[in-house]
């Protein structure tokens, strides 16, 4: 499996990419102009909604994206409840990681799998735990961002030929709950990295355990191929680590306000363009996007000390995710 091999194109994605980019850039720009940039950064996290189920027709996304948004908000709510308590948030991270992985794999959610649900839990606990914002205000801002992202995803419905398509029932779009053999293996790997990663995080960087675990979950991905599990994991690990390095470079620019809105919008657009063809390359852009959102919301985006800490967290988490690939059994002739 070559790092330079791209999956076949599945058709134009610029509309999805533009929707996702606007979903993250507009809240930041609007709230910056309103004098409340922190609320814009939180609302921008709602753009994670549009990163799911992008291969579906718009009429089917209209049915299923509210489920994604509700799960993101549920994870955020649990993060808010656990905020300020290291042990509660650590245990919650393990439980949430396993639960959302079971749902993602059991209902065939597809890319990016459980990643953003894990990160939203940790991000919520981290930001609210600083005391910088009330938990209720945080959830309201995130909910508004999810709603805005959802509405952007529905904009193609203004076209009659798009609106006229017939949508399948939700149970057919997201069949389950049932774990395939590959799904069970992926879930087992998430269980391993959630437990071990949380333990390592408590030793390495207790304030950002969720990023270490999230890096490991990102490396695991959503597709299991027994003959190439470790190789694919290493490719994803490289994408995550290169992305952390890109974040360190971008942090030197101290982006803020409207400049940050545009930068994050460009990253989000790029992610949506490449994610279905080369997940490792997508992680090069996903990693700095999430890290800049975290840094902007917590006021540490320009700190190189924090940037290097995140690089270390990413290295450890990505290595853990790659190592979990050895759980796949050896290939058999029928594979």
Order of helices and strands: HHHHHHHHHHHHHH
Helix content: 55-70%
How many individual domains? 1
Count of DSSP helices? 14
- Give the structural class: mainly alpha
| Fraction in beta strands | under 5%
Uncertain spans: none
Radius of gyration: 19 Å
Number of strands: 0
Give a concise summary:
With 335 residues, the protein is mainly alpha-helical. The protein has helices at 14-33, 37-44, 58-82, 86-106, 115-129, 135-153, 160-163, 170-173, 181-204, 209-220, 229-251, 257-274, 279-298, 304-323.
List keywords for this structure.
mainly alpha; 0% strand; 14 helices; 70% helix; single chain; globular; 335 residues
What do you see in this structure?
- By secondary structure, the chain is mostly helical.
- It has one domain.
- Helix content is 70%, strand content 0%.
- It contains 14 helices and no strands.
- Helix 2 packs antiparallel against helix 13 and helix 3 runs parallel beside helix 5.
- It is globular and about 55 Å long.
- The mean pLDDT is 85.
How would the blueprint of this fold be written?
Elements: H1 14-33, H2 37-44, H3 58-82, H4 86-106, H5 115-129, H6 135-153, H7 160-163, H8 170-173, H9 181-204, H10 209-220, H11 229-251, H12 257-274, H13 279-298, H14 304-323
């Amino acid at each position: 499996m070559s790092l330079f091999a791209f999956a076949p194109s599945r058709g134009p994605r610029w509309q999805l990419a533009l929707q996702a980019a606007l979903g993250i850039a507009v809240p930041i720009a609007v709230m910056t102009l309103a004098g409340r940039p922190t609320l814009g950064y939180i609302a921008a996290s709602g753009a994670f909604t549009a990163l799911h189920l992008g291969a579906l027709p718009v009429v089917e996304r209209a049915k299923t994206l509210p489920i994604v948004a509700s799960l993101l908000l549920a994870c955020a709510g649990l993060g808010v409840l656990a905020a300020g308590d290291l042990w509660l948030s650590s245990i919650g991270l393990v439980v949430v990681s396993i639960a959302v992985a079971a749902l993602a794999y059991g209902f065939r959610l597809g890319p990016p799998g459980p990643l953003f649900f894990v990160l939203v839990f940790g991000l919520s606990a981290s930001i609210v735990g600083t005391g910088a914002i009330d938990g209720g205000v945080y959830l309201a801002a995130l909910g508004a961002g999810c709603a805005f992202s959802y509405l952007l995803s529905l904009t193609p419905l203004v076209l009659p030929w798009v609106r006229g398509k017939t949508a399948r029932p939700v149970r057919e779009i997201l069949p389950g709950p049932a774990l395939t053999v590959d799904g069970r293996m992926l879930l087992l790997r998430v269980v391993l990295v959630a437990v071990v990663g949380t333990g390592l995080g408590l030793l390495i960087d207790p304030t950002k355990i969720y990023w270490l675990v999230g890096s490991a979950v990102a490396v695991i991905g959503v597709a299991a191929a027994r003959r190439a599990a470790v190789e694919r994991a290493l490719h994803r690990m490289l994408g995550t680590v290169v992305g952390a390095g890109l974040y360190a470079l971008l942090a030197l620019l101290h982006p803020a306000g409207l400049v940050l809105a545009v930068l994050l919008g460009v990253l989000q657009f790029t992610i949506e363009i490449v994610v279905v063809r080369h997940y490792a390359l997508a992680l090069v852009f996903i990693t700095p996007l999430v890290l800049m959102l975290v840094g902007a919301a917590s006021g540490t985006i320009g700190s190189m000390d924090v940037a290097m800490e995140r690089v270390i967290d990413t290295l450890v988490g990505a290595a853990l995710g790659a190592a979990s690939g050895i759980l796949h059994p050896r290939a058999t002739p029928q594979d």
